Input
Amino acid sequence: MEEIVKHLTPLLKEITGYIYPNEIELHWGLLIVIYPYLTGLVAGAFILASLVKVFNVKEVQPTYRISLLTALAFLIVAPLPLLAHLGHPERSFEIFLTPNTSSAMAMFGFVYAWYLMAVLLLEIWFDYRRDIILWAEKESGWKKWMHKITSLFSSDISERALRFDRKAAKIITIIGIPSAFLLHGYVGFIFGSVKANPWWSSVLMPIVFLFSAIVSGIALVLLIYMIVTPLRKKNIDMACLNKMATFLFLAMIVDFSLEALDFVHRIYESEESIKILTQLVSGKLFSSLIVVQLLIGMLIPLGAIAAVKIFKWPDELKRLTYFLSAILVQVGIFSTRWNVVIGGQLFSKSFSGLTVYKTTFLGLEGLLVSLGLLLLPFIILYILFYVLPPWEEARAA
Output
């Protein structure tokens, strides 16, 4: 039998489009696409918040707390796609009971716990502590006790205590910046370290993942700010909006440059996989990669924001351009995750053929569950906005 396989293998490689039967089924589906997308939003939102606390960018101050709560809401949901994909989510606790430091995937549990407990929750607590104490004094019923418990029954709002809160929040934010890089950069590291897959095996993969995360996070907070502010019958701060759009534009330029560099590097190397990757890009991934990711999700928003910066447009047109650009950016970044996760599984290991991926509506890996996971962070964010109002006028006097 081994002799037959040995003699047939060279012949099979000459057959265009051939793929072995065990390569037809994709192991990672839509849930694994959603996972890096959610973690990217977390990292990007936190980086935007750090611009206020660490780099003292006053223009984006109105979005500071919005960014923190957005990062928290999406971070809570981030591990759920992985747990759903496992089939037995209760086994996830084994990561902590029997830690395996040599497994990048297993170490996510510790990175997640560190970022949630030691970084994000602590920064939110120090920033809100004074307000929570004052809210508890004015309220009654369950909200009073909820805020008392949240403040850990603290009542010290002296200038010395508040000064310590501000200093602690700044230190935590400084620690949180590399932690945010680690949280999402390691996702790109997992894909980039799979040497057997030429679509993933790139030293630029973690950096590309990181900057695309910054792009998606800034765009998301911009959208939330533009939607929530008019709903509250408040005026949008154009200085804040313009500054966020500027940071979004700069991050998109860096992200586009890195992706272009990665693409040029692959062409320059021209390894044996270049032929099948060319077929992949020009065929299966043409719509999602060239049309959606590159044209709709990158070039059109870049051109639109650049036009706003170059020409003197009225504020109404600026707001509309920023809003539509941020939506297109989200579509493009999600397409990026799709192209990496799904695209990297569409070609055979023999580089001879391509397979297909079909989504289902029902089931744990289906479209319905995936949509639920994408909507859940917004439900959590609504609750957080109610419990911990991020608005400037909501700050206790």
